[in-house]
Backbone:
């Protein structure tokens, strides 16, 4: 089953678009297969539509319920009560008039490239309009307190995007998480008593979801190579009341134990074929994140992730027991990091078989990597551009059918990719 969005936010159909995609069309559709299927004009139209959607946030804010502590319905009731008491707008500011006083009406912009200097009176750089608001403090009161000052600088009265704040809202019961990020853990389908590896785990959203679906029974190993990120995983596990998680500061590319003599007593590196299921939510270019209003990466930087992903994938295959499940996912939209990786994996590891996914909320895989239509159907690609940008207000949402809102929430989300494999035999076995 999927995670139903619990709160709706509005998203206008028009906004200043500052998206910059590295090297444009050819980095997304690098192969002629896509152009042959749709025609160049239609393929380019699809690409431009996708860019436009990526520059807007999803219309829905999704939160995952910690079912280890409470039921979805119970937390839903608590959430509605909490939002009724504590609902606040988002707060940002960019330029403030020299004589601005508390109570003045101001327009709020976001400095996309971080070029605006503190206290600037004018700014001609790349910016996006976020809405209008009322200043809670004078210009002097805001800037004299930086960087220590915290709290509300501008109270937004006419925001372009209406979004609830979940800061410290039911922290032990809710985890703010994009819908596909919650779906991928259901696709992994962890079972109580199993030993599961989250190979690139920070900040722990999927790790804690795995433990919750296992009813906190079994062992969940979480790896990340940065100490502050491992600390965050442990904090999230503690906050959500989960005790089956063990987090280690360790490079996932080195997680396979090659020396069979030294005993690491359950710590990384690990012996081959020692995990029942493995989630590889791989480091990626992140080009599916929304809103993505400015991306200055080069094509070389984007394509640099493919070798790293393959190193991690190879380690994951070797750590997975025969009959075990490996789920590969990214939060990007490029063919090279998604379908091409699946095609490579099926060739490099004949012991792997692609599997259908449940739930399957996204679309099928994209043409261009040489996969068959049957294989593409077994993949799950979340494409934000499959639904029109929404121009909704609160009144229109009240009149909408619940079924329509759920369908829209399932589609209007970040760009994401999921592939599920099963390891049919030991990688050390030789074919007769």
Residues:
């Amino acid at each position: 089953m999927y995670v139903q969005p619990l709160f709706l936010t509005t998203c206008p159909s028009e906004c200043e678009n500052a998206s910059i995609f590295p090297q444009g069309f050819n980095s997304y559709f690098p192969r002629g297969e896509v152009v042959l299927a749709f025609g160049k004009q239609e393929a380019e139209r699809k690409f431009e539509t996708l860019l436009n959607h990526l520059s807007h946030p999803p219309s829905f804010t999704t939160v995952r319920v910690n079912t280890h502590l409470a039921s979805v319905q119970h937390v839903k009731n608590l959430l509605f009560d909490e939002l009724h008491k504590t609902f606040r707008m988002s707060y940002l500011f960019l330029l403030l008039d020299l004589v601005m006083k508390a109570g003045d009406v101001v327009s709020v912009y976001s400095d996309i490239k971080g070029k605006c200097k503190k206290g600037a009176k004018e700014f001609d750089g790349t910016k996006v309009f976020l809405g209008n608001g009322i200043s809670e403090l004078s210009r002097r009161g805001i800037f004299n307190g930086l960087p220590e000052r915290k709290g509300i600088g501008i109270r937004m009265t006419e925001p372009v995007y209406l979004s609830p704040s979940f800061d410290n809202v039911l922290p032990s019961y809710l985890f703010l998480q994009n819908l596909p990020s919650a779906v991928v853990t259901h696709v992994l389908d962890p079972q109580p008593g199993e030993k599961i590896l989250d190979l690139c785990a920070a900040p722990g959203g999927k790790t804690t979801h795995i433990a919750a679906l296992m009813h906190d029974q079994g062992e969940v190993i979480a790896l990340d190579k940065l100490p502050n990120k491992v600390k965050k995983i442990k904090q999230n596990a503690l906050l959500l009341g989960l005790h089956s998680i063990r987090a280690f500061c360790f490079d996932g590319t080195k997680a396979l134990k090659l020396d069979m003599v030294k005993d690491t007593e359950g710590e990384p590196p690990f012996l081959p074929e020692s995990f029942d299921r493995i989630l590889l939510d791989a480091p990626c270019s992140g080009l599916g994140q929304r809103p993505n209003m400015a991306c200055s990466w080069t094509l070389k930087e984007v394509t640099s992730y493919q070798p790293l992903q393959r190193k991690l994938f190879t380690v994951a295959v070797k750590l997975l027991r025969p009959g075990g499940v490996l789920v590969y996912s990214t939060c990007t939209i490029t063919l090279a990091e998604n379908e091409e990786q699946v095609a490579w994996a099926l060739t490099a590891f004949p012991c792997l078989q692609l599997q259908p996914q449940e739930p399957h909320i996204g679309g099928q895989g994209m043409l261009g990597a040489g996969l068959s239509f049957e294989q593409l159907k077994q993949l799950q690609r979340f494409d934000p551009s499959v639904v029109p940008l929404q121009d909704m207000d609160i009144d229109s949402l009240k009149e909408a059918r619940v079924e329509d809102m759920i369908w829209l929430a399932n589609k209007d989300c970040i760009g994401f990719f999921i592939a599920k494999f099963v390891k049919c035999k030991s990688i050390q076995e030789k074919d007769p």
Q: What stands out?
A: The first strand starts at residue 7 and ends at 8. DSSP finds 14 helices and 15 strands in the chain. The mean pLDDT is 82. The two ends are 41 Å apart (CA to CA).
